[in-house]
Amino acid sequence: MEFQYIDGGICAAKGFKANGTYCGIKKPSIDRQSPDIKHKNDICLYVSDTVCNAAAVYTQNKVKGAPILVTKANLEKSGGKAIAVIANSKNANTCNADGVEKADRMCQLTADALNIPKEQVIVASTGVIGQILPIEPIEKAVPVLVKGLSYDKNAQAATAIMTTDTVKKEFAVEFKIGESICRLGGMAKGSGMIHPNMATTLNFITTDCAISAELLQKALSEIVKVTYNCLSIDGDTSTNDMVCLMANGLALNNEITDEGEEYEIFKKALYEVMANLTRMLAKDGEGASKLLECICTGAPDKNTAITVAKSVVCSSLFKAAMFGEDANWGRVLCAIGYADADFDIDKVDVLLKSDKGSITVCQNGAGIIFSEEKAADILSSDEIFIDINLKQGSEQATAWGCDLTYDYVKINGDYRT
Question: Which residue in the list 21, 59, 163, 200 is annotated as catalytic?
Answer without folding.
Answer: 200
